[in-house]
Write a sequence for this structure.
């Protein structure tokens, strides 16, 4: 297993609840598919593990975990 290169820092209960709401209610399909990857990363899962769980390529997961341009990560 490869060592994770990108990780989201540990999330508190509020951001985790926000991610759950995004998965359930966001009209944007990209948001709904990326939110679980962000949560799994915050729980310490590696890129390879997240890739396997979410059924996305490792590079796609890596892209999901990048902060938005001009935003904070």
């Amino acid at each position: 297993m490869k060592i994770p290169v990108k990780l989201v820092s540990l999330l508190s209960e509020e951001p985790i609840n926000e991610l759950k709401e995004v998965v359930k209610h966001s009209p944007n399909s990209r948001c709904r598919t990326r939110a679980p990857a962000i949560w799994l990363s915050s729980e310490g899962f590696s890129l390879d593990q997240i890739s396997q769980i979410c059924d996305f390529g490792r590079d796609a997961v890596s892209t999901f975990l990048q902060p938005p341009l001009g935003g904070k990560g």
Q: What stands out?
A: Residues 37 and 50 are 6 Å apart (CA to CA).
